[in-house]
Amino acid sequence: MLILIFLIIFIVPVVGPEGPNPDTPSSPSSGSSGGGGGGGGGHRQQSIDSEIRTYEQWKMQYPEKFEKLKTILWKDPITTEEYELPTVLMYYTGNSTTVARNQLLDITTIITNNNPLEIRRMLDLYLEVKNPGSNKYEHLNTWPEKIQTNEYNEKTNTTYRVWGILPSFSYLTTTGLVRVRVNVSDGVNKWSSTDYKDIKMPFYRELVFNVTNSPPVISNFTVRPSGQVRYNDPIEYDARISDAEEDMLNVTLHVCDDNGLDLKNVTQQINGGEAVVFKANEYGLFVENDAGKNFTYYYTYDDGIDANRTKIQQGPSIKKGPKLFVDRLSYNPESENNYWWQWYTFGMRVKNLNPEDYDVVFTLYTSTENNPWRVVENKKVRVGREPKEVSFNMTCPFTVADANQTFSYRIKYSEYDQSGKNSVEASGARINPKVVPYAIYSPEIVLNLSFMLLVVIGASLFIERKLKRGIESQESFSRKAGSINSGNNKAGNAGSGEGMSDKISSIIGRR
Amino acid sequence: MDLFAWSAVLLALVLVGTGLLHIYNVNRVHKKLMMIGHCQTTKEAFFKEMTVAQGSNFTALAFAGWVLVFVAIAYLYFLVPTILPYSYMQVPALISSSMGFSIFGVIIALGAMAVILGLDMLPESCRLIKLTELYSFYTISKGTKRLIGMTVPALCASVVFSAYHGTVYPERSHLAEIFGFVLLAASLIVLVAPVYKEVWKGRR
């Protein structure tokens, strides 16, 4: 019992209250109170790490409150009469201060602080820019660039910052003079690099850049197709536009009448260095009433800073043309068997809805799985108001590879029809699977087989004449055999019926 | 395998069997000669002694018969797709040509002739595998010669039946197939009969 009382008195104070859980984020106050519990050195280290993590979380999650907290916890810098203001100057090694908007810059600030380390103050730097047309400097960095007291070179007492936040002036929408300086605060004093005097290159109080812009360049403008076109042809205006800064470009096509009077305009936004294509059909630039008129065009273009326009160009020239009405598309095979080798007649009825007569080119195509859309025949027909039959008579559009396949056919015309299309097509029948176009009794097959058999027999006779296999052996045999078998072994008369074995005795006899 | 495929196998077996039995026949006689004559003789000398001329006309007809056997086989089995997926019907240029059947047959005939003549150029020691001299190792009766001569028109008829089968393709004429095959098989049997007859005699 005495031992138990002894343990309660001496052990409980030593253990003390439990410290904070290092894994649970805690407030700064809880962290400091927990430290008095005597939880051991390692446990205290964990609490500090936990505090640091907590502050880092706050900095990320509540930046405004965190700044307020910093203000509350701010400790006034040491002030002493010995303190000298650090020198903060711009540094630039570029060849010229006239720069293009997209030219890369290397702007640096050099800070010289000759104060002893004990009285140095942390500096806050802001890069400030006065843009063309503006009368005030604006901070480029939202949060100050911190210069710590211990980061200066020990020998030269200098440090520097390269301003990556200003790689170029590509953000500018106007060109002109741009002034760049640094605003400094050491917690007590505020000044800027422009406050210094008598500074020599390559150090500057402020950097003054003359920012220029390269205007976009347009070239190679054409209208396709060239020559006379129909209003609903796929007319394309092509050009190539480039911009050194690769800005987003506005390109506007102005379609004018032949006197250069603006009729329509359409705009595209594109990146520099690309082809720009305006498809007339997409924008509905031309209508049926434009037939017979000549048009001109020009482009205006800008990169947001510089605007320009091209000279007036010619084109397109819209020709007058017919408006076809087509119907009664049909085909007739030579026979109902639909053999591949037979002729087929294709046709349709056509008339012009406009009053004039026009020459229209019609092209017949056929298609099967093995031979898709083959041109069969072309035909030019003069089409007027009276309906006319356009026929492709007795064509042979198929090959043996088309046998046993269903065919389709299409008639394409050089003008547009009542549906705005330039072709009409339909499905045909299944082509007969028979592949050989001749009957066994046909002259072709008789000739084929006769010729082949004559060639074989003739060649055999010829070869035998050359090789003389049927004579030489006989002669040699006759010489060797002498009179033994002469009666039986003449050519064509070796019909004694004796076999190979019978020869053995004659051979042995000769020996 | 259908009957048509079996018929092709049968023809192939007859052809291969003929070749093997011909070599067997010649070697058997050579051995016998060695035994009876108690002498050593070279194969070249033996072949010289063994061969007998069958006459120019007969040899030419037999040569034509053998070439026609290969043409008839091609017409029966390769004019339309039968036992193999390859056939004349898959060559559009040939089918479309008015001389397509003739070209097909002549190509096969020239191929067969090239093989036969190629074998004929082998040295004397290989004489027994020269198709041009197949019959010179055998004593052939007049009747057999007439029959072998008759194989030429029979094989021509077989070709005509097969050609008819081709003209009606993709329809199928079983009658034409059967006639074509029977005439081909009968002709082949007549052409190889001397070899088999010698085997039969030799066994006696």
Topology readout:
The complex is a heterodimer of chains A (511) and B (204).
Chain A (H helix, E strand, L loop, with lengths): L1 H14 L12 H7 L6 H21 L1 H11 L13 E5 L6 E3 L7 E5 L10 E8 L7 E2 L5 E3 L10 E5 L13 E10 L4 E3 L10 E2 L2 E6 L4 E8 L3 E2 L6 E7 L5 E10 L4 E10 L2 E6 H4 L10 E9 L4 E3 L3 E6 L5 E10 L10 E9 L5 E10 L6 E10 L4 E8 L10 E8 L9 E8 L12 H25 L1 H13 L18 H11 L1
Parallel strand pairs in A: 2-11, 13-20
Antiparallel strand pairs in A: 1-3, 1-10, 3-7, 4-5, 4-6, 4-8, 8-9, 8-11, 12-14, 14-17, 15-16, 15-18, 18-19, 18-20, 21-22, 22-25, 23-24, 23-26, 26-27
Chain B lengths: L2 H35 L5 H8 L5 H23 L13 H5 L3 H21 L21 H26 L6 H30 L1
Strands of chain B, count: 0
Indicate the CATH class of the largest domain in chain A: Mainly Beta
H-E string of chain B = HHHHHHH
CATH fold-level name of the largest domain in chain A: Immunoglobulin-like
Rg of chain A, Cα atoms, Å: 51 Å
Shape of chain B: elongated
CA distance, first residue to last residue of chain B: 37 Å
Strand content of chain B: under 5%
Largest interface: A-B, 60 and 69 residues
Mean pLDDT of chain A: 83
